[in-house]
Amino acid sequence: MQGGIEVIEVAVDNLSHQGLRTYLTILGVIIGIAAIVTFVALGDGLNNAVVDQFEKLGSNTIFVAPSGSFSGESGLAIEYLQDAEISKIKRIPEVSQAFAPLMTSATIEFDNEKKSVSVIGYNPNEVKDLAKTGFLKIGEGREIKSSDGYVAIVGYSLAKKTFDKEIRLRSNIMLNGKSFRIIAISQESSQSFGGGPNTNTTIFINETVYKQVFADSKPMFMLVTTKKKEDVDAVQRKIERIFEQKYGKDQKTFAVTTSAQVLESINQVLGLVQLFIVGIASISLFVGGIGIMNTMIMSVMERTSEIGVMKAIGATNGLILSIFIVEAGLIGLFGGAIGVALGYGLAFLVGVIAGATGFALSVRIDFLLIIGALAFSMFVGIASGVYPARRAAMLDPVDALRKGSE
Predict the structure, then answer these.
(1) 157 with 15, same domain?
(2) Strand arrangement, sheet containing 95-99
């Protein structure tokens, strides 16, 4: 009986005889671990989605936007990019492509229905391949040419889901009272925190036509791609100097940020949020630990006679201690295993729902999280069982037999 396997067998047999009390105790651990795993998996899924989107943009991408756009600051006066600064950025030798679209909101009318949409105007001569910017990919049709007039590319959701009737290629829509022919529909894309404008519900038109239809014709942000990944830092410094020449050395009007810096900032925010939520979820596991301790104390009280008999036939304090600690550890382990499965099930379910609504949430199985959750739940179980186990081990066999017979 001294062997480890025998101790585990005795512990399992004891737990099975405790019935409902054991199941309710395990339930407390399940809820705690499931909550932790769910929130961690969802946080990792959101982080994975953000990373995937920035990988599409490329590590050689630089964002130029009003200060506060990437930090979430509000209440700042928004400054538009000026033609002089845009031209200087485009003339930087290491720059391969500079995408400075015009953007506004407008009313689209199709099949006697009206909706509010975002409209982006860009120069086809300067952006010959939208896909290379990581901003938009064409699903059906073709890209806009510089010779095109009143034609448009519509986002996937706008074409397929917004109106009662589906917008198809060569359909005509009314945009602020002007008729546009649809020449392309974008691929469906998922949006996530930090993912930028939702291109699924956006209309793209020729910049020349945009200026004819809309009064506000100044770009507010810019995507700059460098010829080589190694050129990113040098181009970033050159762009910063361009704005410093106009707004001063310590200018805060525009932020020039690389994709790696934006991703790092987003990950920091996600990490803090995730840590806070996991901290709250851990409270439920703490409550589960108290439940384990309570169950083990009750078990010691009920099995006093049994402990006395075991000691009378030669069981050592160490053996008694081991049995009760193993019982507590198994409660934590069983609850943790079920909690991990339940937590990932909930996380994947939320991921499927998010994907169906067009929100990026790439939930993936993380074996380190599984191992960590199981180890943590087992630790909570063992830690909660130490006091009851010591109490059982220190019982005097004579007193235990007498109390058990009363």
Answers:
(1) no
(2) 95-99, 222-226, 61-66, 254-258
Residue that is written with structure tokens 């979430």 in the block: 72
Its domain, for residue 87, covers 60-257
**Residues paired with 174 in a beta bridge:** 109, 179
Query: Using one digit for the tens of pLDDT, what is the confidence trace for 91-123?
Result: 999 988 888 888 888 889 998 899 988 899 988
Number of domains within the chain: 2
Q: What three-state secondary structure class fits 66?
A: strand
Question: What's the pLDDT at 291?
Answer: 80
Reported as a pLDDT band with limits 50, 70 and 90, residue 58 is low
Q: Within a 10 A sphere around the Cβ of 271, how many other Cβ atoms? A: 12
Q: Which two tokens stand for residue 215?
A: 């009064």
Residues in the chain: 406
Quickly list DSSP for 224-292. EEESSGGGHHHHHHHHHHHHHHHH-TT--SEEEEEHHHHHHHHHHHHHHHHHHHHHHHHHHHHHHHHHH
DSSP secondary structure letters along 95-127: EEEEE--EEEEEEEEETTEEEEEEEEEE-TTT-
